[in-house]
Design goal:
Chain lengths: ~150, ~110
């Protein structure tokens, strides 16, 4: 295999990536969790979460990123997001109909813990989108090097 | 009116890029520009002068919001565009593996 130094980009890019990648991931989680009170939501936050892992993969090479989140793990997370969204929708049958907001106390409007099942749906969508986008990118890279 | 004309010019730039360029990667970029032009056109249809984002806030009324329906359609369109772009890139990688080039004039061994 190649020399350890030649994997990935230069030292400048690696240092900046090491500083910023955690902040990008945290910003994605913030967008997801505040999806029901501010612009953003599950899709946008999921894309930002996936971009943090793609950033890691571009700077450090595919081994470093796939060690953090392997392709099988991202497939499992993607399926888990879809199943979580479906089970939230089906749990609405407890109250009578599909997508029923089954929380008794829905919280005050414009607070972080409010709006019933919408934050849970946002988390499910972000899992699906983030893991799916990362899986697409990882599959394209693995496919090329085969 | 000028914004629709600029939107159409952006669409024409993307169409020129798709029809005229020979590199597959440039064709993919041209398809992306066409898609963005159409999305921009949809969002501009729903625009209202001095409008706010269509989000429920404390002093929000219906009369000062922009139209949220084109934005919801564009969100779906962005997701579909992502899937189409991923598919095109996968086909381009496969073509590069098979022919060793991205030039579409050199990819002509279709039979066999």
């Amino acid at each position: 295999m190649k020399n350890k130094k030649e994997v990935g980009m230069t030292l400048i890019v690696k240092t900046i990536t090491r500083l910023t990648v955690g902040l990008i991931l945290l910003y994605g989680i913030y967008i997801v969790l505040h999806g029901h009170v501010s612009p953003g939501g599950g899709f946008a936050g999921g894309v930002i979460i996936a971009l943090s892992f793609i950033h890691l993969m571009l700077a450090f090479g595919k081994e470093a990123a796939l060690k953090k989140l392997s392709q099988a793990a991202s497939s499992i997370l993607e399926s888990l997001g879809a199943l979580m969204f479906l089970s939230i929708a089906l749990l609405g049958f407890l109250g009578g109909y599909f997508f029923f907001n089954f929380f008794l106390h829905k919280g005050t409007p414009f607070a972080l813990f409010s709006a019933g099942i919408i934050p849970l749906c946002n988390i499910a969508i972000s899992l699906k989108v983030g893991a799916g986008l990362f899986a697409i990118f990882a599959v394209l890279i693995l496919f090329k090097s085969r | 009116m000028i914004e629709y004309i600029l939107c159409f010019i952006l669409f024409c730039i993307g169409l020129y890029c798709v029809l005229r360029k020979r590199n597959i990667i440039k064709i993919v970029i041209g398809l992306g520009i066409v898609e963005y032009a159409v999305n921009l056109f949809f969002v501009l249809i729903g625009f209202r002068m001095h409008g706010r984002a269509p989000i429920l806030a404390k002093d929000q009324t219906i009369s000062n919001m922009v139209d949220p329906l084109p934005q919801a359609l564009v969100l779906t369109s962005i997701v579909i565009g992502l899937a189409v772009t991923a598919l095109i890139v996968a086909i381009a990688i496969r073509l590069y593996e098979k022919y060793g080039t991205f030039d579409i004039t050199k990819i002509r061994r279709l039979r066999g």
